[in-house]
Protein 1
Amino acid sequence: MILALQSTLEAGHLQALDRSLMIALAPVVILTIAVLVLLLVDYFGRKHPGPQGGISLQNASTITIASTVLALLGTLGTWGWLNTLPNGPSQGLFPSMIPSASAARWDFAPAFVVDHFFLFVCLLVCVVVIITSLNFIPFLQRKERYHAELFPLLLLSAIGMMLITGSRDLITTFMSLELLSLPLYVMCGLNDKNRLNKESSLKYFLMGAFASGFFVFGAALIYGMAGHLNYTVIQNMIAETAQSVDPVMLIGIGLVGVGIAFKLGMVPFHAWVPDVYQGAPTPVTAFMATGVKVAMFAAATRIVLECLPGLQAELWRDALVLFACLSMLVGNLFALHQMSAKRLLAFSAIAHTGYLALGMVSGTPASGSAVLFYLAGYTFASLGAFLLITWMAPDGQDDVFLDQMHELWQKAPKAAICLTILLLSMGGFPLTAGFFGKFVVFKEAWLAGLSSIVIFALLNSAVSFYYYLRFVIAMYMTPAVPGEASLNPRQMPGGYVFSMVMTVGLTIILGVLPQLLLGALDLTNLGS
Amino acid sequence: MSSLLLIVTFLPLLAGLALLFVPNKEQSLPTVRATALWSSVVTFVLSLFLLPSFQSSSGLQFAIDVPWIPQWGVNFHIAVDGISIWLVLLNTLLFPLAILTSMQSVRLREKMYYILMLVLEAAVTGVFLAQDIVLFYVFFEATLIPMYFLIGIWGGQKRLYATTKFVLYTMVGSLLMLGAIIGLYVKASAAGYNTFDIPTLTSLIGDGSLVLDQQFQFWAFLAFFLAFAIKVPLFPLHTWLPDAHTEAPTAGSIILAGVLLKMGTYGFIRLAIPLFPDAPFMAIGPAGLANLRSIIMALSVIGIIYGALVAAVQVDVKRLVAYSSVAHMGFIMLGLFSFNQIAVDGAILQMVNHGISTGALFMLVGFIYERRHTRLIDNFGGLAAVMPVYYTYFLIIMLSSVGLPALNGFVGEFMILLGSFQEDWLMTLIATIGVILAAVYLLFMFRRVFFGEVTHAENRNLKDLNMPELVAITPLAVLTLVIGLFPTLFFRHITPSSEAFVSDVLTHADDDFETASTDINVEDGLGGFVSFNTNGGDL
């Protein structure tokens, strides 16, 4: 962002800067200010150096939520403002600054774009941040841990998620990727008394480092061939040499793809997902499973649609389709017999990566918005499910096992019904957001001629019903054995209730009236 | 009148949602039961009002058609025609009776039970009324979850196995159908028709404005076929059915056999065949020896014989009735796919008949299970003397299932056999053996349960049917007689609608027959075994 700003200054777009930039980047700007406020208050609030003192959990959470709500409103404002721009809503901001291939090197001017695609992801990220932070306090209090630094970390990561989706330049993408990831490594290791927790943090960090390494190396190779890091320049470069793209360029694109696939948890780069999801504190898992997935898929979709269209389809598409199919297959098969709810949902997340990748790879004009619709449905379902697990988890355990859920329906009927709806949405059952998510994604894939893969994916979702229904069987149909350790859900704090109403409500609303979102998503189509 | 359809569909759903807010306490149970019963009774009475103003000659009527998802051309379009009106009435009739039966037997978590029953009723009505593919799919799937819970919570010993099997079987079929729906939409919108509307698509395909290539038609038909054939169930996709029936609570079995299976056969009439009219006639296999239609007819006949033979060796009455369902549904499929006017009419009436007879049989089995907590044939004997009223009702219903003239089963089966004989005498001949077998296993079971000495001391003091049970079973028994004696009352509405269906299919069959020697090699030298000659017999 800074670079974009700086170069805007240099390029003499002063008029554009004063107001437009602030409006355009409203969500990012607001959250950045919030981070600074949180850190400064924390620092100056301390009387002595050390863990004591500083900002209280309650205040940190209030500031975080208030600023994110503000950012959400800001995003909506920008959304409307973008429609009033003279160059039309579909163009987004800064499109005129895209240079020709002959532009000077190290010109970062076109590093960023503000369009509806970006703004929609901002909205989703804001919702994720609000709902996650509402649930941090009860969680932390129960664990008797008071990490107010969690909140600035959360916001920093959210800023990274937003920036990566607007990025149109490999360096900006890389920096946003790091901004997104580094706070998460810390957040994963929050509960340092727990062995799984440490494993999760270290594993995530190492895998993330690998992914970054691949990404940077690939970007370097691309830069070597194209002389530029901007998506449009790379796209033009590829288009010019369409029939004989240099192998080094292909290797570069492949390595960038591997880096992103690591972050997405796509098979065969998925091995970290179950361990990290299971080991991380559950609210962090909720944030990670939804926010990172949304941001990385949005970034990847932008690369596919704005960087690769000129590339001969069979070169990268076949590979991606293969990975998508493997993700569905591996995710679904490994999920079948998991006993840990978090681990099961982790494998199901891998499967969802496969469905999403199918939508992304289709590369049709509307595939960007299809992926966003799916992501929205998946986000609400996954967020709600992980937060329910957070709440249900018995003392001294940060996970729920399926056999602990017996007769949950008797003890906590509302929670059981909520979880059922969220899981049905994940499975893609009609009248939930997940159904129309699958519908749009598969429709785009079919349009792109991947009909047999769509059938494969549909059969996979039939398999997935088996393990989603295992929850239902556990909650409703299995009597609790006396003496068996089973859940005794505590009173649900207000934050959870609000989160549940939001996630379940949005899941059903999008499942019954998808046109509410479809209309907005029509603006988010990518591609030139 | 249009709003009447809306009310009939959603009144049970609203009642179910209202029940959510009733406190889950012992003293509110009468309210729960009364709400469930009376809302379903009112729904039935309201649905009866459809009949007087129904114009049998004007096809789909009472339509409500409002945009639902305008971006994709999905409409909320419900309407009723001469075929679906009977299925809707069957549905609204069976639900109050099933709920009444449940009041005697269900003692566990009643509130949730009745909520699920009411939701299920709304969903099934929706399936029969939907005139938009997406809407149909939504209702079709929505029936799954209530039934899943009904079997899974209130079922018997092996309920988890049975209910999971039921859901997964159905799910595989319907997800493949979803794939075909997506494909159809992509093809239709590529041709400029951005719609999911069933009548629109059917007529576009029927008059050749929208041409789907043969390969797509074949695979898409196969996907729809799987979804509906699993539901019917057609041999060899039937294995979920005996398990589901055996484990389901009585009301669950009544609904499952009575209306849920009909969604499969109805799906063929409404969607699979009209949308892909060439597919049943496409040659497949080496040298085009067979086409899909002949394969489906063969599977139906195998189902008839197989279902009857397996039913004959069952020791559990409920399982016996379940297998008899497989056989009876085979008749319906045989009639449908013979594409003969008489047989199709018979098949449609038989859908209603089967719902009444088998629903009533499951109800009767449930009555005796409540008293003895067993369903094994060996545990009974001589019940005719102990429970004369029960014996009489069982006799009527059992004979209707056997197909005794003057009862409803006879009309349907006779017409199916009469019509399909003109198309394929050999298969019809084999199917007729199934009629005899049905008499064998049902009468054999009946004799062992009701005649002879009372062999078990526990059976001596069994109470005969009480008032609620009589109220539940009498309408069904009366209907078997009414349909058996006055079938024309029903055909008056069925025939005009089914004529459209049959003539539509036959146009395509003729087209295919003409082109058979050129591009699709359908008919070569198998004589009458696989016949396209739909106008006359080929004996």
Protein 2
Amino acid sequence: MSAFGHFSYWITMFLLAAGLYIVIARGHLVKKLVGLSIFQTSVYLLYIAPGKLVGGTAPIISDKFTVYSNPLPHVLILTAIVVGIATLALGLALVVRIREAYGSAEEDEILAQDERAARDARAT
Amino acid sequence: MMAVVTVAIAVQGNLFAVVVLGSIYSFLMATALVALDAVDVAMTEASVGAGISTVLLLGALHLVRGEEQKPRGRPWLPLAASVVMAGVLVYGTFGLPGFSDAGAPIHQHVVPRYLNDAVRETGVPNVVTAVLASYRGYDTLGETTVVFTAGAGVIALLRRRRRDRRDGDVR
């Protein structure tokens, strides 16, 4: 039971690591943002999973039930989801601007252009 | 299943497929949240995560016009970093209480009061709503501030672009 009892955490950690890997390893900025949202959803799971009680029900008070899951993480994560979509929208707007300024949304090409510009500035 | 979709997102090069897989991922996450009794969060995740964010990503993809991403070499260093971080975190989970442990600290502090008194104090049977709108109303006010700021930022970024284009036309 003790090994299985931490299974939900391990799923969370796997999603966290996968999101981090996508953010670091993938070059396209839109894909980086998808990775960032995976990272975020793993945090939702990290908060929600400990609040669950087996045999409990959703925290809507009724005479028929006595055991409820923990409502506080649900509230915090509701806020986190909405803030997450706001930051995603802002990030995508930045990506669109970067694409217009550099003509590319690939990290390599943007860095190469920056280096070229810095070298030119030093040469003149 | 969620793990499979995540790996597919990581290896998939076609960005349109990545966005669609991201939507599937959000629906799976919403299903998992229903199983964890978090019905309000699941509803929000299904509408916001699978709905609005997919629309935003597709819109951005249309503006960026980058359907295919280039394959990258040398993925080993980020992979190693991620695996090491996951290993450290899994080691850390052994110090946490197990799944569905009623004696865990998370169930001891303010939550019994919310569950016992929320109906009497706020008149709302759904405790999540009661906490969100009443006990932690200032949190929700802060959240709307964040959303407003983000919306203002998006408008500022995208409006400048349209004006630049119009100036370019004049010249």
